[in-house]
Design a protein that fits this description.
228 residues, alpha/beta, Rossmann fold, seven-stranded parallel β-sheet, 6 helices, 7 strands
Length: 228
């Protein structure tokens, strides 16, 4: 039986890149989606080249890009077993901060983009009785002062449960990953004691590696030093 296939959006850096590395180490073939194609292609080559890893330029807010990414995965590898809807970014706290344009882009990426990833891959995941994962946040469990980003991650929390309910009975598992502070490009200056992207990648692979009858629905992963 061919090695399983793991699709990751936002794969060019941070949690997405770390998860791709862990997935390949665990025997997966990977489909890497992000807007930075040059970085993706270098990563795909490092992870084994065309037989093990494929890079697909994908703006997750564009339905045509998401469709093309899913079709590339199926065309290249013939199946789709695990999907991580990971693409996203943040904003300064404060409703007088940032620009309306930046807000719009963030909401479309974090919420609409995640929903499109689900839509583009759901049929293939049903066929494989696979696993859907979404990157939420501790900010999706508690409101942060002046944070529209927090609101987008509350939406992802609801989306994960909504997807789990829709997929109930199909064999597809659904996991919401909720990182606390992680040292990624998300932060200009990461908080002291922040987690590394690989810490979250290991949590993701833990959820994926459970027996088929075990569905780890939510994983909240904070640094030991993070109080809230």
């Amino acid at each position: 039986m061919a090695d399983p296939v793991f699709l990751i959006t936002g794969a060019s850096s941070g949690i997405g890149e770390a998860t791709a590395r862990r997935a390949v180490d665990a025997g997966y073939r990977v489909v890497l989606g992000a807007r930075r194609l040059e970085r993706l292609e270098a990563l795909a080559e490092e992870l084994g080249g065309p037989k093990r890893a494929v890079a697909v330029k994908c703006d997750v807010t564009e339905w045509s890009d998401q469709e093309a990414m899913a079709q590339e995965a199926l065309g290249r590898f013939g199946q789709l077993d695990v999907v991580l809807a990971n693409a996203g970014f943040g904003a300064k706290r404060g409703f007088l901060e940032e620009t309306p344009e930046q807000w719009k882009s963030m909401v479309l990426t974090n919420v609409y983009g995640a929903a499109l990833t689900i839509r583009a891959t759901m049929t293939a995941l049903k066929e494989s009785r696979g696993h859907l994962l979404l990157t939420g946040s501790v900010a999706g469990r508690r409101a942060l002062s002046g944070s529209l980003y927090s609101a987008t991650k509350w939406a992802v929390t609801a989306m994960g449960e909504a997807a789990r309910l829709e997929l109930n009975g199909t064999g597809v598992r659904v996991t919401l990953i909720e990182p606390g502070s992680v040292d990624t490009p998300f932060f200009d200056s990461p908080p002291l004691g922040a987690l590394e992207p690989d810490d979250i990648a290991r949590a993701i692979l833990y959820a994926v590696s459970q027996p088929a009858h075990v569905d780890v629905n939510e994983m909240l992963v904070r640094p030991t030093s993070q109080g809230n």
